[in-house]
Amino acid sequence: MTTRTQQIADAYRAATIKDAWYGPSLAELLLQTSPELATKSPVPGAHSISQLLQHLLLWNERVRNTSDTNPLPRWQADKEWAEAAVPWNELVLRWTQSRDLLEERLRTFPLADLSKQVPGRGYAYEVMLEGIVQHTIWHAGQIAMLSSVLRSQSR
Q: According to the 3-state scheme, what is the secondary structure of the chain?
């Protein structure tokens, strides 16, 4: 029988590695992205693919490290979007490593703790863990659209 944490981990794996029901996974999208394309913005003020992936990396690490003794940090858009850019190839490597570690955390998360409240938040760990999957899918969709727009602009 598949546990709830295994279901969440399987959904995260599909969204990030392969077998996403809606289209290419995030890893598949990243394989199609050159460093040049990753840093371009289709319009002034829009985030680049690289910025979106760096944002996903930040939140992977935050969710993975959240515990009773390490609360989930609050979202601070101005501060977080202003972080120094990480070179594309290094960023993809760091995201891949973080992805693997987060999937392992999802798979081994204690079932008895799913209903516990995330420290400093008004929701349970299960909501946070499902949320990181949804968050990844949301930004993967943005990356797919950016990639399509940028490729059409370069023709």
A: CCCHHHHHHHHHHHHHCCCCCCCCCHHHHHHCCCHHHHHCCCCCCCCCHHHHHHHHHHHHHHHHHCECCECCCCCCHHHHCCCCCCCHHHHHHHHHHHHHHHHHHHHHCCHHHCCCECCCCCCEHHHHHHHHHHHHHHHHHHHHHHHHHHHHHCC
CATH 3.30.1360 fits domain 4-36+46-153 = no
pLDDT tens by residue, 70-94? 999 888 888 777 788 899 999 999 9
For 91-115, how does the pLDDT look when each residue is reduced to its tens digit (9 = 90+)?
Answer: 999 999 999 999 999 999 999 999 9
Predicted TM-score (pTM) of the model is: 0.94
